[in-house]
Amino acid sequence: MTDTRRRVKVYTLNEDRQWDDRGTGHVSSSYVERLKGMSLLVRAESDGSLLLESKINPNTAYQKQQDTLIVWSEAENYDLALSFQEKAGCDEIWEKICQVQGKDPSVDITQELVDESEEDHFDDMSSPGLELPPCELSRLEEVAELVASSLPSPLRREKLALALENEGYIRKLLELFRVCEDLENREGLHHLYDIIKGIFLLNRTALFEVMFSEECIMDVIGCLEFDPSLPQPRRHREFLTTTARFKEVIPISDPELRQKIHQTYRVQYIQDMVLPTPSVFEENMLSTLHSFIFFNKVEIVGMLQDDEKFLTELFAQLTDEATDDDKRHELVNFLKEFCAFSQTLQPQNRDAFFKTLSNMGILPALEVILGMDDVQVRGAATDIFSYLVEYNPSMVREFVMQESQQNDDDILLINLIIEHMICDTDPELGGAVQLMGLLRTLVDPENMLATANKTEKTEFLSFFYKHCMHVLSAPLLANTTEEKPSKGNNEDDFQTCQLLALIVELLTFCVEHHTYHIKNYIINKDILRRVLVLTASQHAFLALCALRFMRKIIGLKDEFYNRYIMRNFLFEPVVKAFLNNGSRYNLINSAIIEMFEYVRVEDVKSLTAHIIENYWKALEDVDYVQTFKGLKLRYEQQRERQDNPKLDSMRSILRNHRFRRDARTLEDEEEMWFNTDEEDLEDGEAVVPSDKMKNDEDLMDPISKFMERKKLKDSDEKEVLSGKGSLSGRQSPSFKLSFSSSPKASLSSPPSASLHPGSPGSPSSPGSGARNSPPTAAVTTKGGLVGLVDYPDDDDEEDEDEEDADSKEESPPLSKKSKLSS
Q1: Backbone phi, psi, residue 817, to 5°
Q2: Is 180:189 a contact under the CB 8 Å cutoff?
Q3: Is residue 338 part of a domain?
């Protein structure tokens, strides 16, 4: 199939100056003998028919728009356009066109504005250029047609723009508009609407300067009120002159600045409200209008920034207690809009802007504003604060650390932010969510600076945990004094639960990023116990937040945290939540099982022992996952090593030999195997070279002692796996190793069916009568051959320890030379 990069739509411009879709196909460029040159070919994707065959003429002006559009004129009244599906395809064809014409592909128009091919239709550019009809009422229709016919061609647009500039034609048109409006000449007003709209699409800054001047802009807006497609004219001028009012919260002494603000507001209004939504082909034609507004805003910010008297007065009135509420509200909204304008600045200009605001005292002013009771004023101040934090969090951190040396904790800026978050009256806590995001940015070590003489991370985090953390955690501590959340357990107190969830999420972030600061705070204030109270909440999202907090702590595998958890039995609320959840298969069930599974897979020994010793009775009946039985198995293996350090060291030696697989070792083992007399081997025995063996007595003594102790414990142990002793696809955590005078070694799953040395397995036992053969690790039972499954998520070394204990056989005389497979 043809590459989608070359997929295009072919458009032609009709007599009504509307683009007609001629079909969809795939474009290519190749030499066409009939046309004697490189040509653009478009074949329909439906039947392969030829939609377009256009020779790339060296003098034709091709224009690339919006990265996916190529437009050109083939004749005076025949304009074409290719709309590409992908930018890459447009770039390829554009390079071909530029290659034929010898142009740089980086240009958007392939021909200079003066082109010989246009001289048949227009005079030379050095001459007076395009001649416009006289600006008279009777000629308006002719002017409108001329403007419409010039828009598709870049060259004609350029000549029309020059003619409009040189002859002062726009002012003449606006005089005609006033005449038509006085005479209520609706036809003339409709023609003027088309003309002014067309002049906008010429995309010329020089024309915009004239149209947006103080004396012309309202008449331009008036022309655009009379859209021919609407039954009644719009009332844009009435809105701008009567409804929209310019408020000078601080008197602006500079007339140029005041005029620039008026102009920018009106031009923005034209762009957003007056001009119709541009079509896909017109959108790029208004780029200069966007730029005009953009640079006006940059100029306004710069002029205000340079007016020190204005800014000084602004901040003085903001912080003055005598300022009335309405005035302060206007001042804060002005400052908010001022900061919003700054987002249009280039990075270096934005640096200077915020540095100026900082020098003028914006942060102390915000501190005063945030302490006020007016909710709207505080909301606007929060938006301003967010601009500052997103721009330069280090500047905010430096300010709050300096003020902490002079002020009480209650009036610190960060504590004010935390209090507003806690006291947010919005039922959905929209403001609290915004403020929590700002706090997270401030306490994030990733954006903190580290210099040679000081570390911002150390200084700020020490400050935050000393002066602010108690304010943040106060709602959590207040609502978790009992075993259940004081308020969070009520179905109707959703707002409190949302707030607690936000606080716990931020604490979870701190656990991940703050290491010892948060560790000291959690352990000293017993925060984890308080958070786990929330697992009893009826709001699942809050219980899950608490579980995420504990899971993040366990994931650190920090023994300080582990000892704290074990000392305070903090798995108890988790187990209770698991049991209270019952058999429901939901997020809480999965989150708790995943937590225990992590402890098992990562083999966190201290937590494994703690869980099994304290909560095994409650969890042993959970058999729809193997997590808890796996934890029990880990626990048994740990106890085995603790009871038999000599056996553990012997196994590590054997493992070291087993895992060494260099070529020399393999050759030695193979030679030993083939040199061994088969008669010396009992059925099921394997061989290891004698130089790798320890003395028999050294090997058998710890195993025999272990089996004696194990046998004494058997009567007190409960059955670990359900299924009445069958292996059921998973190794039992309590396999017994027994040495028999019989050549058959016995494996017994249930503790109650363990075999005594010297006695053959009971025929009725499902696990008895098993025989191991060296090539395969399998157990033969009455039911047939059952493989000992090696689960990949179990620790490899632990599995091999079990297989070693389960697969060793002894020949009939115990004193006979034992041979173990390597």
Answers
A1: -60, 120
A2: yes
A3: no
In this structure, are residues 535 and 493 in contact, taking their beta carbons and an 8 Å threshold?
no
Determine the Cα–Cα distance for residues 352 and 466; give it in Å rounded to an integer: 33
Question: pLDDT tens, 547-590?
Answer: 999 999 999 999 999 999 999 999 999 999 999 998 889 999 99
Each residue of 438-461: pLDDT tens digit?
A: 999 999 988 887 665 567 788 889
| C-beta of residue 194 within 8 angstroms of C-beta of residue 144 | yes
90 and 144 co-located in one domain: no
User: Tokens at residue 801, please?
Assistant: 């320890």
Neighbours of 476 (CB within 10 A): 21
With contact defined as beta carbons under 8 Å apart, do 786 and 727 qualify? yes
CA nearest 65: which of 97, 36, 94?
Answer: 94
- The reply to whether 144 and 91 lie within a common domain is no
Torsion 161-164-168-170 (CA) sign: negative
Calpha distance 413→410 (Å, rounded): 9
With 90 as the cut, is the pLDDT of residue 306 above it? no
Question: Do both 44 and 174 map to the same domain?
Answer: no
Do 519 and 561 touch, CB atoms closer than 8 A? Answer: yes
> 3-class DSSP state for residue 642?
helix
Q: Could you tell me the two tokens for 272?
A: 């957003």
71 and 158 fall within a common domain = no
Say how far apart CA 343 and CA 350 lie, in whole Å.
7
Higher pLDDT: 774 or 496? It is 496
What are residue 779's DSSP bridge partners? 786
Q: What is the rounded distance in angstroms from the CA atom of residue 13 to the CA atom of residue 136?
A: 29
CATH no. for residue 34?
2.30.29.30
- Rounded CA-CA distance 754/737 in Å is 9
In this structure, are 273 and 169 located in the same domain?
yes
Query: Are 26 and 6 a contacting pair, CB within 8 Å?
Result: yes
Domain that holds residue 66: 7-101
Quick: pLDDT tens for 735-756.
333 333 333 333 333 333 333 3
List C-alpha distances in Å: 551 to 164, 295, 508, 527, 638: 72, 52, 9, 14, 23
The verdict on 95 and 147 lying in the same domain is no
Residue 447 dihedral angles phi and psi, to the nearest 5°: -105, 20
Distance CA 276, CA 271 (A): 8
Provide the residue count of the chain. 822
Residue 155 lies in a domain: yes
